[in-house]
DNA sequence: CGAGGATTTGGCATATCATGCCCCAAACAC
DNA sequence: GTGTTTGGGGCATGATATGCCAAATCCTCG
């Protein structure tokens, strides 16, 4: 499904503009990429259709929402047979507190980003959500004390 | 500036709906949260104004864009005096390849998410962008082999 | 229990915007 | 040079956002 129709510089400009402001009007977007509204909207729809644009979202202050604690969790499995891996990954996808889960190189198999209300919630999360999955060899927890940078905008790779 | 006007359940429903689809129409949004369009839009504007909603963005396929390699980098500084920390953080913010930078608990001081075109680009990034900052004690690189989950939607904390 | 005020909601008119259609210009093949 | 393909521009129409005013709800205090 995700074709690779090779994006050109204008497509990437559209993407970066929308990464800065995803609710930007097509008229403003067209102006920013030096196109008239019609072809601009056509390109946008094409990017959505071929999968380059996967969706739109809103950036929310986690603390204001009521989830002030973000945790990065490194997880290693104690076995890597198909069944263990499949069970872990499908279970992880179903846990709402887990916003992201990456397969990693290095010492641990997975890196999770988890949001919770407080430390107690995190302990509950580990006990009630993670451990019951089974097959987990080690869990290494790091708390996020602060955010230095958080950008949605990809670098310009025109050069 | 980021007040804490205590969001209610409807505000959180608005947020979760927009996290699923950030370009959702106000009419559809109103229907989804059982409100008429007017008060729904007013709540939305209030959330934007008080900082609960920090902005809107688009989710882009990094590979389709031309940045197939994502790297998680753990960085420790060799000193923690004000000057070293300030220089590191302000420099990091200026590097376009660094999409995220968190201050962490645990063995390393920072966790960076970096996107590049290939391994060679990453080596250039470390040599030309990271090391010149100075004051860096250790760099621990982990490559992202795959994405198991990537959600923008916060858990429902009504209960 | 009821009245006042404050807050939130709903409905409506208008301006703005998205969308689909048709035409035009440039690049390309033969 | 001609036919073909690809991408851009303009316009009319339908959908949407926005601001204003009235009505309902909630809270508090008498």
Summarize the structure.
2 copies of one chain form a homodimer. Chain A is built from 6 helices and 5 strands; from the N terminus they run αααβαβαββαβ. Chain A has 159 residues and is an alpha+beta fold.
Features:
homodimer, 159 residues, Arc Repressor Mutant, subunit A, Alpha-Beta Plaits, elongated, DNA-binding (chains A, B), Dimeric_a/b-barrel (chains A, B), DNA-binding transcriptional regulator, Lrp family (chains A, B), transcription (chains A, B), WH-like_DNA-bd_sf (chains A, B)
How are the secondary structure elements laid out?
The structure is a homodimer of 159-residue chains.
Chain A: H1 9-20, H2 26-32, H3 37-49, E1 53-60, H4 62-65, E2 69-77, H5 82-93, E3 98-104, E4 110-116, H6 119-130, E5 136-150
Antiparallel strand pairs in A: 2-4, 2-5, 3-4
Chain A binds a DNA duplex (30 and 30 nucleotides) through helix 3.
What would you note in describing this structure?
Chains A, B: This is DNA-binding transcriptional regulator, Lrp family. Chains A, B: InterPro entries: ArsR-like_HTH (IPR011991), AsnC-type_HTH_dom (IPR000485), Dimeric_a/b-barrel (IPR011008), Tscrpt_reg_AsnC-like (IPR019888), Tscrpt_reg_AsnC/Lrp_C (IPR019887), Tscrpt_reg_HTH_AsnC-type_CS (IPR019885), WH-like_DNA-bd_sf (IPR036388), WH_DNA-bd_sf (IPR036390). Chains A, B: Keywords: DNA-binding, Transcription, Transcription regulation. Chains A, B: One of its GO terms (cellular component) is cytosol. The structure is a homodimer of 159-residue chains. Chain A has 159 residues and is α+β, with helices and mostly antiparallel strands. Chain A folds into two domains: 42 residues, Winged helix-like DNA-binding domain superfamily/Winged helix DNA-binding domain (Arc Repressor Mutant, subunit A, Orthogonal Bundle); 81 residues, 2-Layer Sandwich (Alpha-Beta Plaits), CATH 3.30.70. In chain A, 38% of the residues lie in helices and 29% in strands. Chain A has six helices and five strands; from the N terminus they run αααβαβαββαβ. In chain A, strands 3-4-2-5 form a four-stranded antiparallel beta sheet. In chain A, a hairpin with a 5-residue loop joins strand 3 and strand 4. In chain A, helix 2 packs across helix 3. The radius of gyration of chain A is 20 Å and the shape is elongated. Chain A starts with 8 loop residues before the first helix and ends in a 9-residue tail after the last strand. At the A-B interface, helix 1, strand 1, helix 4, helix 5 and strand 3 of A face helix 1, strand 1, helix 4, helix 5 and strand 3 of B. The structure holds a DNA duplex (30 and 30 nucleotides).
């Amino acid at each position: 499904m995700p074709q690779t129709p090779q994006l050109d510089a204008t497509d990437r400009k559209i993407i970066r503009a929308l990464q800065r402001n995803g609710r930007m009007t097509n008229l403003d977007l067209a102006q920013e990429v030096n196109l008239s509204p019609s072809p601009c909207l056509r390109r946008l729809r094409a990017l959505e259709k071929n999968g380059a644009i996967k969706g739109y979202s809103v950036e929310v202050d986690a603390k204001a929402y009521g989830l002030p604690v973000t945790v990065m969790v490194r997880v290693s499995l104690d076995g890597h047979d198909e069944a263990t891996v499949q069970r872990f990954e499908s279970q992880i996808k179903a846990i709402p507190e887990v916003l992201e889960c990456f397969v990693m190189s290095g010492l641990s198999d997975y890196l999770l980003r988890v949001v919770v209300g407080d430390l107690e919630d995190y302990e509950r999360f580990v006990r009630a959500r993670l451990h019951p999955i089974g097959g987990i060899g080690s869990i290494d927890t790091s708390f996020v004390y602060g955010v230095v940078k958080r950008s949605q905008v990809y670098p310009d790779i025109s050069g």
